[in-house]
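Q: Give me a backbone?
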Amino acid sequence: MMGMLATFAVVVSARGQGGAPNSGLPDVATATEIAYPLNTTTTGMVSLLLTLDASGTVQNTLVLQDTPPLTAAAQAGVQNWTFKAAMFHGKAVAASLPVHVVFNPYNPGGASLVSGGLTRPTMLPTGGGGVPPQILLASYAIYPANTVATGTVVLSARIDKSGHATQLKVVHGAHPLTDAAIAAVQQWGFRPATSAGSPVAGRICIAFIFQRNLS
């Protein structure tokens, strides 16, 4: 765990000290659909921490929040994505990127209550080296009323050193579900990334998997 997080500190420290133009955070480059597992009505969030090498290739996937049988579907889906490596002083470097995959309930217009709500991942210790942004508060998206659309929405958000989600970017959309996903994330709370114990900017990826009534 600590070996993975240590690579993250190198990158965010440069952004946190003025955001040098030849430095940058790791990011999702392209994303594809994630299949909702068959024969299950389970909803919830799977949280992954990806270790990317200097080419943006995933070298390791750490499960921070396991939600069977959804975890296997999330891991399989992310394997088809591509990523952009972090940059430090103009050179690509290894870094870690959190990816949170929400298997969203069918709750058109918010009329259907979801028992238990959405559980946030276990918090990582922030002392010592570098730690990526973390989720403090999360909620499901409201499935838009008057639509039968399904699909995956993938968002990339820069979390500034105050813990605010800024520069929210749609990597993969599914009309009209994209707006619902964005509205949900805008209500989430985040803990900023840290480097050597100090808050810095970081990046986080959040995917919503919308499925029709599974009951």
